[in-house]
């Protein structure tokens, strides 16, 4: 990994064994100069071993865009949300899937009613391939973020 300023992941599936214990060792190599601002090294944040199903969202594979937010909010009190979700099929077979998107206020818990919810049409993803599912949604009367009202949403 080139630096410590961005997250990353590795697929270690091929190195695991189901016939006994597995040991995972993390090593930091400090090559000087290793940074523009700070050339120290070490692990300063949490590490996670994430087990994903064979069909899953790509890391950083969900994007949300709000094009023309100023105009749509001013003219219609709405926010257009363009959402893309990249789904990877690492299984041995083609599989048919859909993606459900739900939007909640950051201050609520998942048990409350979603502000928006949308299920995509099903698509077949071939073995070893990925498909990008696209949503185009509108949120009526969104609570926009400001310094005095730092409203956030959870997708």
Written description of the protein model:
The longest helix has 8 residues. By secondary structure, the chain is mostly beta strands. The strands form three sheets. The protein has a three-stranded antiparallel sheet with strand order 1-2-7. The protein has a three-stranded antiparallel sheet with strand order 5-4-8, with no helix packed on it. The protein contains one helix and eight strands. The mean pLDDT is 87. Helix content is 5%, strand content 34%.
Topology:
Elements: E1 55-65, H1 69-76, E2 78-89, E3 95-97, E4 100-105, E5 116-119, E6 123-125, E7 130-140, E8 153-154
Antiparallel strand pairs: 1-2, 2-7, 3-6, 4-5, 4-8
Question: Summed up, what is this model?
Answer:
The chain is mainly beta and 155 residues long. It is built from 1 helix and 8 strands.
Characteristic terms for this protein:
mainly beta; single chain; 3-stranded antiparallel beta sheet; 155 residues
Q: Work out the helicity level.
A: under 10%
- State the shape: extended
The spatial strand order of the largest sheet comes to: 1-2-7
- Helix count, DSSP H or I runs of 4 or more residues: 1
Mean pLDDT: 87
Radius of gyration: 21 Å
Total strand segments: 8
Based on secondary structure, the structural category is: mainly beta
Specify the biggest β-sheet.
3 strands, antiparallel
Question: How many angstroms does the end-to-end distance come to?
Answer: 29 Å
